[in-house]
């Protein structure tokens, strides 16, 4: 999944973050033969652009950070490169503007030699502000005032680019390890990589995770929360899973979800999609959605699809979120499948 004021400013940023036309992940398309893959990496300062550039370099990209926009055409008009290219775009560059970036993207889209993509690293405004305060760094757009002013200005500056993003990754609650895993799923250039699936459980109280391609509402299922001996457990526990599965609608729901995903995966592969994010939501994100994620992950892993799991609310339950903390929320599906087949409680 590299390095997320006053009330009016906070409200404006919240509206932008919640805009469904902007908070989307369109997918990373594989270029055709003979066409160079070109990823433009940008996002607010402190969201992880530098780390993302390093990750892409490890994945086989030729990576260049902080290149002025005016020099990019000259770079691309030079000798062709066999490796895919990743370019980091920094708002601190003198010629950086949203209009210039969009003009560059439009020009590259018309050029048959390149397959351009925008990777936008997003982050919640309060998290960005906290990162600056804790590191005591000055925001590049407000060097003489509080970081909140710079964060707000940068949101306004980048919003047109964010709206054009092909891949949007929210780093608000991601550790460096999580971010590397997320970018690896999107941009791994190694041969024979299959489309991978990430399954996310979440609470509707805290909102839908960003970047979800497909979502299922599990709130109609029997809720273990109302059973005193199950309330403190999670959907990883077999007793909770059995209780949820006792709902007469559960088997049909699970089978239908698995059949739909397994039907769609080959079609997405044909379209060049490299990753599918599927969300399962319930009221608290502890029981029903977790149960569904565990069951669906097992089915997909048995069908030999690379699958990973992220239980957002369980991560918060284990430890309070920290600024790019150490805990990883990504659990590889194959390992989880082996655990489940051994009969351990989840």
Automatic annotation (TrEMBL):
Coiled coil: none annotated. Keywords: ATP-binding, GTP-binding, Nucleotide-binding. InterPro entries: P-loop_NTPase (IPR027417), RapZ-like (IPR005337), RapZ-like_N (IPR053930), RapZ_C (IPR053931). GTP binds at residues 90-93. Residues 38-189 form the RapZ-like N-terminal domain. GO terms for molecular function: ATP binding; GTP binding. The keyword Phosphoprotein does not apply. The keyword ATP-binding applies. Residues 196-315 form the RapZ C-terminal domain. NCBIfam families: PRK05416.1 (NF003828). This is UPF0042 nucleotide-binding protein.
